[in-house]
Each structure stands twice: as C-alpha cells, then as structure tokens.
Amino acid sequence: MAALPVVLNVSHFYGELLKVSLELMGAIFIIARIVDAVQDPLIGLISDRFTHRGPRGRLVFVALMVPVLAGGFLMLFAPPQAWHSNQTIMAIWLMAALLLVHLGYSGVSISYHSHGAELTDDYNERTKVTVGREVFGLLGMTIAVVLPTTLTALLGEGRGYTMLGILFIPVIVIFAVPTLLASGPSIHPPVVHGERNAFFAFFAPLKNRLFRRLLLIFVVNGSALGVAVTVMLFYVEHVLEGSKVQAGIILLVYFVTGAVSVPMWLLLSRRISKMAAWFVGMLLTAVAMALAIFIGPGNFYPFLVISVFTGIGLGADYGLPPSILADIINAPEGGDTQGKTGTYFGLWALATKLATAIGAAGSLPVSALLGFDPARGRYGTFALVVVYVIVPVVIKIIAAVLAWFIHVEPDRGSVRDEFRRQA
After folding, report:
1. What is the pLDDT of residue 141?
2. Among 223, 296, 377, 415, fewest CB within 10 Å belongs to which?
3. Distant-in-sequence, close-in-space partners of 201: CB < 8 Å, separation ≥ 6
4. Distances from the Cα of 175 to the Cα of 56, 117, 136, angstroms
C-alpha cells in the first residue's frame, strides 16, 4: 500500500498544496532514486544472509523494516504545519521522508518477494504464488487510492493528508503481523553467501542474460506507468475537470479491475507463455490509453471505460513479470548466481523504482516546460495530454516491440516464436 500513495499523491500534495516547484520535486525524486540504486542491491544481499536464521529468516528482516516504513510514511504526509510556507524546508523534509520510505519499503518488499519466490520450484505453482500476492497487493493499492481521496474530501487537503500518514501505522500492523506469522517456510535450505567483493555480489545477477533482458523490458514498460501515475490527479482535475470523488472512482475502478484480472492472465499464460500474455497486456493498455486523446472536459464515463481496460492491462504488469523472474532465478542460465533470490530481487526492486523514477522525474519537468506548473500559476492542459496520454502510449509500444523480439523465458523462445509455434 505504501508505494502508490507516494507516487500518486506526493507530487500533488507538495506541488499543489505546499507549492514546491515541479522542477525541484523532479530533482528530489532523481536524487532519492540514486540512493535507491545503492541501497536496493545491498538490501538484497543482506536479505540473503538472513537465511542463516532458518527457512523463515527473510521474514525476520521484513519485521525489522516495517517500523522504518511506517515512520517514513508518517513523516512524508504529516510535515509540521509551521513549515508549510517555506519551500526550502519543505523540499528538505520531502527528501528526508522519501529516503526513509524507500529504505523501509525496499527492506520489506525485497525480502517478502524473495521469500515468495522460494515457496515452490514448480513453473505454474510459482505463477499461483505470484498471482495470490499481486491480487492482495492490488487490493492494497485500491485502499491506497480510495483513502487519500476520501480523507481529503471529508477533512480538506491539509488535514486529510495528515490523517493518511497517521492511519498507515495501524493498517500496516494489522496486515503485516498475520502475514509474517502465517507465511510458509522456504523450501530451499538456508544459505549464507560469502563473496569477498560486495560490489560484484550486488550486481552478480546481471551476468544472467535472461535477467538482463527481462530488466530492460520491465524498466521500459514500467516507466509508462510512472509517467501516467505522477500526473494523473492533475489530469483529472484540469483536463477532465473532474472532482476529487471522480478521481477516486477512476482509481478505484482501475485497481479493482487490475486485481480481478490477474487470475485471467494466469490462465492465458498457461496457454501462450507468460511473456506472450504480458505482451498482450502491453498492447491492450496502449490501445486503450490512446483512446484518451479524444477525451475532454466532462467526459467522465468514457474515461471510466478506458480505465477498465487499462486496469486489465495493469493486472498483466503486476502478475506476470515477478513470476517470470522466479523462473529465471532458478534456471541453469544463472550459473553461479542460481538461487540467490534476495540479490536478484534487490536488483528487481531497483529496476521497479528506476522505472517509476524515470516517469516521475521526466514527467514533472516536461509538464512544466510545456506549460503546466501549479507553483507558478500555469495550468496548460496540452502539457497534461502529452505527458499523461501520448508519452505512455509510445513507451508501451516500445516495450511491446522489445518483448516481441527478445527471448526472455527459460526453455522458451521469444513472443514472436511462441505465437508462431501456437499457429
């Protein structure tokens, strides 16, 4: 639940309410992600070493990182009111809060995903594990998009965002504790990696050519979502001229549809391979999003229909890539990196955030350059159409082309080869 509110609401909260310039926020996002570039592989390595505590060792590390995540989230959305008018202090506060949130979220997500990848060695069972995790993750995202819009509508933007930061603490406790206690053990024996050179240990998975190819497609594809999500609230308010309630409904439909569609992608992946199913999801999203070019003020319901189809595409983006990664981790192509789950997922987390950062850091300055910058009282809607619609569609098409030609899955061909084989 933590990642989405950060991407979706921070730019709106700090840009629209606290008047931090979009260029400055873009720079802050870039710096925060550079720090992530160092810490994520390190966290993955630490997670691997926690396996010496037994088959549930990674979950111990998750428990240690949960308080860091909760504290950073509270700090992010509840800055001292006395400092709200000082843009410099708010920028520094934003940077510090983001660093804490990123540290906590990385620690939780990397170990959590690594543990999930070690619950089974079966190709289809891995997809089931991934689907279960991602469905609940998307339901968490649904809460994450409904809660801010509900709170800000009821309490006003300032108090609403503060309450969001406060409520996150009991929410993470309620959901984290049962998960940590009830999760099954890893089927792999505990192992401690003793590489002498930490730098090479961090990036050792990059020796796996299948992993490199998956990362390339994943980052390109994910940056489209990063671009769109960053300016989504601006788009609804200034292009659709919709209310906060309508923005919440759009996001609710988007993520609920994504969660519901994940099992469908599981079934499709069994027929045409996981990469081929993901490719179909990319095309679906690109086509649906392209139709938004015809959307104007007051076209709430047509845009809601578009959100249904882009939500279905989101299900593919969330449900399939982690399952493909789990297959790659334990494939012979990995060589001496085979089975180093935490290290792989450390780089995977870095790639996830890199994709989001590329979108966020690029979309905000480009929006300002094209005429949309609330801090300066500029509200050009053309900029939002370009950034929210045109740019993500182009990126999705590029990702689909890469997926079509590049061989990624172990023991399978490229998407083009798989479709030819099916024919």
Report:
1. 76
2. 377
3. 45, 193, 195, 343
4. 18, 20, 11
192-250 pLDDT, tens digit each: 555 555 566 677 888 889 999 999 999 999 999 888 887 888 899 889 998 878 888 89
φ, ψ dihedrals at 409, nearest 5°: -75, 140
For the chain, the domains span 3-183+200-422
Token couple for 388: 């929210």
Average pLDDT over the chain, rounded to whole?
84
> Are residues 288 and 306 in contact, defined by beta-carbon separation less than 8 angstroms?
yes
- Report d(CA 44, CA 211) in Å as an integer: 16
Least confident among 30-39, 106-115, 302-311, 352-361:
352-361
DSSP assignments along 55-111, one per residue? TTHHHHHHHHHHHHHHHHHHHHH---GGGTT-HHHHHHHHHHHHHHHHHHHHHHHHH
Element (H, E) at 132: helix 123-155
The number of residues making up the chain comes to 423
Residue 194 is encoded by which pair of tokens?
A: 């003793």
Nearest to 128 by CA among 267, 283, 14, 303: 267
CB hemisphere CA count around 122 (13 angstroms): 7
Q: Which of 409, 388, 356, 144 is nearest to 290 (CA)?
A: 388
CA distance 76 to 276: 39
85: number of Cβ within 10 Å: 10
The CATH-assigned architecture of domain 3-183+200-422 is Up-down Bundle (1.20)
